[in-house]
Amino acid sequence: MLKIAWSSEYAHPLPPGHRFPMEKYELLPQQLMYEGTVSERNFFAPDAIEESLIIQVHDAQYWEKLKNLALSRSEERATGFPLSKELVDRETIIAGGSVRAALFALEFGISLNIAGGTHHAFTDRGEGFCLLNDIALANRYLQNEGLAKNILVIDLDVHQGNGTAQIFNDDPSVFTFSMHGAKNYPHRKEKSDLDIELPDGTGDEEYLTQLDLALENILKKFHPDFIMYQCGVDVLETDKLGRLGMSIEGVKMRDKKVLNLAKELKLPIMCSMGGGYSEKISHIIEAHAQVYRLAQDIFF
């Protein structure tokens, strides 16, 4: 059965005028149920991640500052969010969702988190709407429990997964692959195991060609037993922050390639949603919804 992490905490309200589209976390599960892709029994409500796991990935000092709402003004500005206890609690629940989704992926082949993909969170700081790195936390949990040894992170958000790259910089058991806009945020990139930087306006054909080549090359030298997939939809031509030129159909083909790869290689895959900032919320929801439809079609 397809299992999906979702909590009402995901849609924590932000001040009026904030550009982060929190409403997608309410609308996406509604759309998936309305169209019959899933039912209520596909969803599970995650618990907050354990503090003991947080401080295995993030610096204890950073976590103390975060949970006590003691970030400096500049540190808070870098996250892009007005800091609050509710927001920190939301991040711990999102991370808990990715950890439990990873466990369901081991059981069913695939699982998804309606939120997550917080790849701009470093060991010692948050950036770009990310406070805790759910991808890294789920990685570390699986490895700690002996449930996975070599993990491939496929990050196809339009923004480089700089926090994830930094966290696993010296860890050969995790291969970090990020394909992103060359001139987009973050302006100071980290070094992933493989970075593919795309010029502004890159469309479906070039994007998908580059993705095929990258996945082929990765699997020649790295042999994963688990995949973490950050499937942000800010690669869309309509995205306000993206600067690439992909269509909704192109995003569907992208997701299909990754999910088919996992299925063919019998690799469990956990998907987290990442970014999406199109002017029309319907574009965001439709682009995100595709990966859930594909998950049902390919794995079940």
TrEMBL record:
Keywords: Hydrolase
Pfam families: Hist_deacetyl (PF00850)
One MF annotation (Gene Ontology) recorded for this entry: histone deacetylase activity
GO BP term (any one): epigenetic regulation of gene expression
InterPro entries in the record: HDAC_classIV (IPR044150), HDACs (IPR000286), His_deacetylse_dom (IPR023801), His_deacetylse_dom_sf (IPR037138), Ureohydrolase_dom_sf (IPR023696)
Residue ranges of domain Histone deacetylase in the record: 18-287
Domain of life: Bacteria
Stored PANTHER family: HISTONE DEACETYLASE 12 (PTHR10625:SF19), HISTONE DEACETYLASE HDAC1-RELATED (PTHR10625)
Family membership noted in the UniProt record: Belongs to the histone deacetylase family.
Protein name: Acetoin utilization deacetylase AcuC
Organism: Algoriphagus ornithinivorans
